[in-house]
Amino acid sequence: MAEITLYGITTCPHCKRTLEYLKMVKADFDVVWVDKIEGEERKKVIEKIYSISKSYSVPLVVKGEKWVLGFNRDKIDELLKS
Q1: How many whole angstroms separate alpha carbon 39 and alpha carbon 77?
Q2: How confident is the model over 13-31, as a mean pLDDT?
């Protein structure tokens, strides 16, 4: 399991840009596509996203207790360095 997790939706352009950016900087990360999950597992993932950011928005990049909501290169870079 990677140290960083990206939560996103496959149709979200900001999620795709975040994914490509994390690949470009060669970050070790896992991706959770919320719209590809069904049933109770999906509910749990959505609840987890909300518990982290107090929002249902994506993309959400999480590393330990720190997180970045939305596509923001500067904030993602800070997160990766922490």
Answers
A1: 34
A2: 97
